[in-house]
């Protein structure tokens, strides 16, 4: 898993393994929040699969990319967790929307062919951001995987976001100092280069 609003912090394999150990020991459910980092965003089907060996959650929740912008979220569980939920215990306003569900099924059919590009372009973007970090001391650290990346700054990032927007680049800032990059899954290296050109310009005047 990768924290989103928390500042693009990938969980370490050691942390995930300890969480799994404690959940099992105390008969608790381990929940993987894949709403922002799941369904291909990190370059794998789900971000928890990046651990080696994979740490299996009892419950996984995911949403955002699943229906390509339409409102849809899912809860996936193993048999033990599913047995605790009886009919009528869980409901949702948008549940069962035929259009969103059909779009999600179509998206799942093409996700396989998107993953290699997400890994390739995400890796390239990661390299580009690290090059900017070496050039501009205002960048403290680059984090993330796939097309879920963050640049942690030594200063608040709000003005950089506004300056980038004025130049045609849409990014946002979370946790006050972390520039968050969540490009479309069909982004290319050429578009990463265009983003880097704008970032060069706005970072050069950052104070």
CATH level-3 fold name of the largest domain: Aspartate Aminotransferase, domain 2
Pick out the low-confidence regions: none
What's the number of extended β-strand segments? Answer: 7
| Helix-strand string | HEEEHHEEHEEH
What amount of the residues lies in strands?
Answer: 15-25%
Overall, the morphology is globular
What is the domain total for the residues? 2
- CA-CA gap between termini: 32 Å
Strand order of the largest sheet: 4-5-7-6
Give the number of helices.
5
| Main sheet summary | 4 strands, antiparallel
CATH homologous superfamily name of the largest domain?
Type I PLP-dependent aspartate aminotransferase-like (Major domain)
Counting helices, strands and paired strands, the structural category is alpha+beta
CATH class of the largest domain: Alpha Beta
Oligomer: single chain
CATH architecture of the largest domain: 3-Layer(aba) Sandwich
Helix content: 25-40%
Radius of gyration: 19 Å
Notes on the protein architecture:
This protein has 207 residues and is an alpha+beta fold. It has two domains: 13-112, Aspartate Aminotransferase, domain 2 (3-Layer(aba) Sandwich); 115-204, Alpha-Beta Complex (Aspartate Aminotransferase, domain 1), CATH 3.90.1150. Helix content is 39%, strand content 15%. The protein has helices at 13-25, 79-82, 98-135, 158-166, 189-204; strands at 31-34, 59-62, 74-77, 139-145, 148-153, 172-174, 178-181. The strands form two sheets. It has a four-stranded antiparallel beta sheet, covered by helices on one side. A three-stranded mixed beta sheet has the order 1-2-3. Helix 3 packs across helix 5. The longest helix is centred in the middle third of the chain and has 38 residues, at 98-135. The two termini are 32 Å apart. The mean pLDDT is 93.
